[in-house]
Structure formats: structure tokens, C-alpha cells
Automatic annotation (TrEMBL):
It comes from Cuscuta campestris. Residues 232-246, 262-271 have a biased composition (Basic and acidic residues). Gene3D superfamilies: Acid Proteases. This is Retrotransposon gag domain-containing protein. InterPro entries: Peptidase_aspartic_dom_sf, Retrotrans_gag_dom. Residues 232-271 are annotated as: Disordered. Residues 100-188 form the Retrotransposon gag domain. Transmembrane segments: none annotated. It holds the Pfam family Asp_protease_2.
């Protein structure tokens, strides 16, 4: 074996230059990959809002929670409870819940999560606190459970309809115990077989009471179907109903079972004697048709129903018109006529009602007599509206435009009103329109809800609305001004609305202050006018003479001053003669203004009925002048006939 020992004179072995560069490139690429991975890890941790303790926890397995994604529109409490309970059922730890919470977000909440400060959240409780604070506006605001006292079964409302509405209203209130829920449900039912059964055998729980009520509701539907089959609704009757609806019938909600008499001033006296026939119309006193088939009777019934004279059973779908009609002739005919509804069939005894009385207990707390108006607070469209004046002198219910806007109602829902409103001073105003809104009166379980028509007017007033005769009669209210109280019947007894003296006197003070301010403004303006300086006016010269400026028409003359110098007079006459065509000697010389400059169009409401104007009688001289002017306007095509 030979050992080679390198000495000082020996040279090291040479490495190829290209191989050296290749190794260097590989080292640089490896370093870049290491730096890239380290940088990506650093970037990810910088975006995470969780602390190092949370990131130290590693998911033990692949976990997928069955939770709906939160998009930023849901209730944050509901989402947190759902997510937390699902994670607990899956055995997740606190740190795992933090790491999994991001997977339950979608949309804008993801951006909010990525924007959280780094390393500030160390537990799920802290994360939930930040989450609730961000989306606190999404909380579902629950009503007090006492709100269910107002959710009673309405008149003529079936059990099925009521229970469906009750279920929706219960979802809107806060949690309550079983006994309270059962008590509220029992009080909400109207008197009948179901209420009697609950009084005899009180259910042990709310759920059992609710299920029993649904059983009665199903039985009620089956019983109704059975009764209709037994009464025998034939096809001809249904066809007749459809025909009445197509011909614009009154759509009365009760069948006609009587006769109607119209007593006019010129038809007084006894009914004529007649022989018995199969057909007889009490309205026309004729045997050509029956009263039930009389078109005029149906029209009278419809008119009376629109005025509310037939009670709730004869309500119609059409909007109510002003008293007496929209035109002067209709109101005159209405004033001369008296409509009386007479039933030929004997009705059963009406149910006794508790009499409405006013005692000293109903008197206001202020001592002595008062002169305050009745101003109440009532529910209009599910909103408490204060400063509502109860006025028996108003023929309509009025809602002022400011209150209309505060109720956030849409102007597109306003229906046009043809008749203007007028006050006791004779001044009239045009209404913005009319709208039908739900109105609730009373308190506790003694409430009544009606659909009332309001006329919306744009007037600045200290009151928000006026409850007029239509609304008062609709709830059949009785008013005592001495007691400042209005009482009315409800399904659960006598309800009442008490006047608010503080609001009434506040309204009076504001009204008087407003009148005083207006009077001061008028007085101030009048004083300024009186102090004004009168400007001198140029009066025409009394000495004038007529000159002729058109030889072909000698009647065309103008007046100039008689004391003018001859040279000036000659110059003026020449100018007038030269420009004689500029004078309008007749209507034909006034062609009007070109339509490209200005044009007037008369706006007419679509669907309006034309009204024939009353004939006006003029004196002979005025009549001849009008005929001449109309003839001239027609000849020059100013008016088209």
C-alpha cells in the first residue's frame, strides 16, 4: 500500500466552475422556500385575533357542526346559543370553540372577524362578548307578556283564525311560565262551549289547553260544513251571488230578510189597498216584482250601509263617501229623504247588555266645573297617538298630515276625495286624500278594534287627529263632557277612554299663543303699510283730441294731447300712422302667444265624473254682450266649439 502525503508543493484538486454555480443556485432556492414558509406562517398569525393559548390547542379530529351560517342579519344571541350548544354536544373545548367559530360565519361577518385586533381574544366568552356588541342592533325585541291581554278573540272570528293569530303573537313576547300562559289563553277566548269547558275542567298545562282549543277548532269547521250541507246551498244561489258581484252589487255581509220604506215629503199617506198576489214590492207599492229582487231597494241598502246606518253586519268593502253625496243635488235629495229600515220578520230577543252609566267616580280629579275638551290617546295603526280630539261636531274623522308622516304611512295608499272640507266659518280646504286604518279603543281586555276612514288634511294644528261622528258611532260610544269620559261596549264588557286634561289645556294654550302671534304679525304689517310713503303718479292731460290714423277705417282713432306744439304733433301723428298695425282694434288682431313660449293645460283627475254647470240667467244687455264676445272668440279661433 502506498500512502500519498501532500506536501507544500502539492496543489488541491480543481472543482469544475459550472458545478459550483449549480450548487449555489440550489442553496439560494432552498433558502427562499424556507423564508417563504416562515413568512406565510407569520402572516397567518398576524391576522388571527386569538391569543397564543388558543392557538396552542390543536383540533383532535375533524369536527363539523350542523349550524346555520351567520350572515349579519340574524339575532346574535340565537346564533351564539345554537353554536355553543352544538359544540358542547360534540365535546369541544373552549379553545376548539374559538377556532371553529369562524366556520359559522359568511359574508360581511367574515370581514369583521378578519379585522379584529391580533391576540386579544383568549376565550369563547370574550369572543361572544365582542360578537354581541358588534351585532347588538339585530336583537329581536320581545314584548312584555302582558301584551297578550290585548290579543283577544275578535267578534265573528273563528277559532282557527284566532289560534293562528295567537300563535304568531306568542312568538313576539318574552318568556313566561306555564300558568301565566294558560291564564292569558283562557281569558282570550270568547264566551262559548270552549270557555265553558275550561271553566268546568281547567286544563293542567298550557300545552294541553292549546291542543284542546285546536280540537274544538277542527270540530267547529266540520260542524260548519255539515250545517251548510243540511241547509242546501244550491248552484243557482251561488250563481246569483256571483252575478250580483259582477254587476256592482253592494256586497252586503248579511242577507236581506226584510223590506225597506223610503218616506219622502211628497209621498205621505196610507198605503193603497190591493189584492193578494205572489209578487209585491213594498218600496214601489207594486205587484210587478218582489221587494227582495228590487234594484232600488238594493241601492238604498248599499247607501245606508255606506253611511253605517245598518250596523256592522251590513258593512261593505267600498270606501265611505261624505254625508249626502259629492254633489249639491245629491246632498239636497239626501236632506229631503228619510230612509227607514223595517223588518217584516220577528227577531229573537236581543242579549241584555250592561247599562252604560256615569257616576261621581268617573269625574276628573280637578275640583269644580271645567270647560276642557275631550282629548284622548288612542291606538291608530298599532301606534299610540296622543292629542286626539273627540268632536261630535265633525262629520268626518280627520288625520293631520304631520301625524300621517310620523305614522310612516305611504302617500300612495291615499284615495282621492272629491268633496272639500268646510268649517263653521265657511272656509273650505282640499283634502290630501282618505285612508282606512285600524283603530283600537279601551284598555286591558276591554278593547274594541274598528277599521275607520280618516280624511288627511295638510293643516298645522295643535291636535294630531279628530275622532268625529263616524268613528264615535262606529264604536257606539256615549260621551259625558262633565266626566271627560267616553264609554262603549266591548266583547268583554264596557270599555272607556278618559280625557287627558293636561294635554287638552296644553293644546288650548298653544292654539291661543298661535292666534296671538298671527294677530301681532297682521297688526305689525298694517302699521308698516300705514307709514308707507305715497309716490306721486302722473295723471293724463284733460285736454285731448281724437285723430284718425287709418284712412281705410275711419272709426280707428286715438287720442293725443290738444296743447302739443305743431311740429311735435305732426311727428307723433306720422309715427302713429306708420305703426297703426301694432294696435289691436279687435279680438282677431290678438293671435295670442306661441305655444313654444308658454302653454296652459288643465289637469283633470283620471276617472272623474263630469259635472253639468247650473244654468245662469243674465240680463238682456249682458246676454247680448256675452253672445258678441263668444262669437268674436270663435271667429278668431281662440276657442274651439
Amino acid at each position: 500500500m502506498v500512502n500519498h502525503v501532500r506536501g507544500q508543493g502539492d496543489t488541491p484538486p480543481l472543482i469544475h466552475h459550472e458545478a459550483h454555480r449549480s450548487v449555489a443556485r440550489k442553496l439560494r432556492a432552498l433558502e427562499e422556500k424556507v423564508e417563504e414558509k416562515a413568512g406565510a406562517k407569520k402572516h397567518t398569525l398576524a391576522k388571527s385575533p386569538f391569543s397564543a393559548r388558543v392557538h396552542a390547542q390543536r383540533l383532535r379530529r375533524k369536527i363539523k357542526l350542523d349550524v346555520e351560517k351567520f350572515t349579519g342579519k340574524e339575532d346574535p344571541n340565537v346564533h351564539l346559543d345554537t353554536f355553543h350548544n352544538a359544540a358542547q354536544m360534540d365535546g369541544c373545548t373552549d379553545a376548539e370553540e374559538c377556532l371553529l367559530f369562524f366556520s359559522s360565519l359568511r359574508g360581511r361577518p367574515v370581514e369583521w372577524f378578519n379585522g379584529l385586533p391580533h391576540g386579544k381574544i383568549g376565550s369563547f366568552e370574550k369572543l361572544a362578548e365582542v360578537f354581541r356588541k358588534k351585532y347588538q342592533d339585530n336583537y329581536i325585541k320581545r314584548k312584555k307578556f302582558t301584551y297578550l291581554n290585548t290579543v283577544g278573540q275578535r267578534e265573528k272570528e273563528t277559532l282557527t283564525q284566532f289560534l293562528t293569530r295567537w300563535r304568531d303573537e306568542v312568538d313576539k313576547v318574552e318568556e313566561m311560565d306555564d300558568k301565566m300562559a294558560m291564564s292569558l289563553l283562557m281569558n282570550a277566548f270568547r264566551s262559548g262551549d270552549l270557555y265553558t269547558e275550561f271553566c268546568r275542567r281547567p286544563p293542567p298545562s298550557y300545552q294541553e289547553a292549546y291542543n284542546t282549543a285546536w280540537e274544538y277548532a277542527e270540530a267547529e269547521v266540520l260542524n260548519k260544513n255539515k250545517r251548510e250541507l243540511e241547509e242546501g246551498y244550491t248552484k243557482s244561489k251561488s250563481d246569483k251571488l256571483k252575478k250580483d258581484e259582477q254587476t256592482g252589487g253592494s256586497k252586503l255581509k248579511a242577507t236581506y230578510d226584510g223590506s225597506i220604506h223610503q218616506i219622502r215629503d211628497d209621498k205621505k199617506g196610507e198605503q193603497p189597498k190591493r189584492q193578494w198576489t205572489e209578487k209585491w214590492c213594498t218600496y214601489h207599492q207594486s205587484d210587478s216584482h218582489n221587494t227582495a229582487d228590487c234594484r232600488n231597494v238594493k241601492a238604498v241598502l248599499k247607501e245606508m250601509a255606506l253611511k253605517g246606518e245598518l250596523g256592522e253586519g251590513y258593512a261593505t268593502d267600498d270606501c265611505r263617501r261624505p254625508e249626502g253625496g259629492d254633489t249639491a243635488s245629491q246632498r239636497k235629495n239626501w236632506a229631503r229623504s228619510l230612509h227607514v229600515a223595517v223588518s217584516l220578520e220577528s227577531h229573537g230577543k236581543q242579549a241584555r247588555r250592561e247599562p252604560i252609566t256615569f257616576t261621581d267616580r268617573d269625574l276628573p280629579r280637578t275640583e269644580g266645573d271645567h270647560n276642557d275638551p275631550l282629548v284622548i290617546t288612542m291606538d291608530i295603526n298599532e301606534a299610540d297617538v296622543a292629542r286626539v280630539l273627540v268632536d261630535t261636531g265633525s262629520s268626518v274623522n280627520v288625520l293631520y298630515l304631520d301625524a300621517f308622516k310620523k305614522l310612516k304611512l305611504d302617500r300612495s295608499k291615499l284615495r282621492p276625495l272629491q268633496t272639500p272640507l268646510s268649517g263653521f266659518t265657511g272656509a273650505s280646504i282640499e283634502a290630501e286624500g282618505q285612508i282606512t286604518l285600524p283603530v283600537t279603543l279601551g284598555s286591558g281586555n276591554k278593547i274594541v278594534t274598528k277599521q275607520m276612514r280618516f280624511v288627511v288634511v295638510d293643516i298645522k294644528c295643535v291636535h294630531n287627529a279628530i275622532l268625529g261622528r263616524p268613528g264615535i258611532n262606529q264604536v257606539r260610544a256615549i260621551i259625558s263632557m262633565a266626566h271627560l269620559c267616553m264609554k262603549f261596549y266591548t266583547p268583554n264588557g264596557i270599555g272607556e277612554e278618559r280625557g287627558d286634561q293636561k294635554n287638552a289645556r296644553s293644546c288650548y294654550r298653544e292654539a291661543v299663543k298661535k292666534m296671538t302671534r298671527q294677530f301681532e304679525q297682521i297688526e305689525l304689517v298694517s302699521q308698516q303699510v300705514d307709514k308707507g310713503e305715497e309716490k306721486a303718479r302722473i295723471e293724463p292731460d284733460a285736454n285731448t283730441e281724437e285723430i284718425q290714423i287709418d284712412a281705410s277705417n275711419p272709426e280707428r282713432k286715438v287720442k293725443i294731447g290738444a296743447d302739443l306744439q305743431e311740429e311735435l304733433r305732426t311727428e307723433i301723428v306720422q309715427v302713429l300712422t306708420r305703426y297703426k298695425s301694432l294696435f289691436a282694434w279687435s279680438v282677431a288682431d290678438m293671435p295670442g302667444i306661441d305655444r313654444s313660449v308658454i302653454c296652459h293645460r288643465l289637469s283633470v283627475l283620471e276617472g272623474s265624473r263630469p259635472v253639468r254647470q247650473k244654468k245662469r240667467f243674465l240680463a238682456s244687455d249682458r246676454r247680448d254682450f256675452v253672445k258678441k264676445e263668444v262669437k268674436d272668440l270663435l271667429e278668431c279661433s281662440h276657442y274651439l266649439q
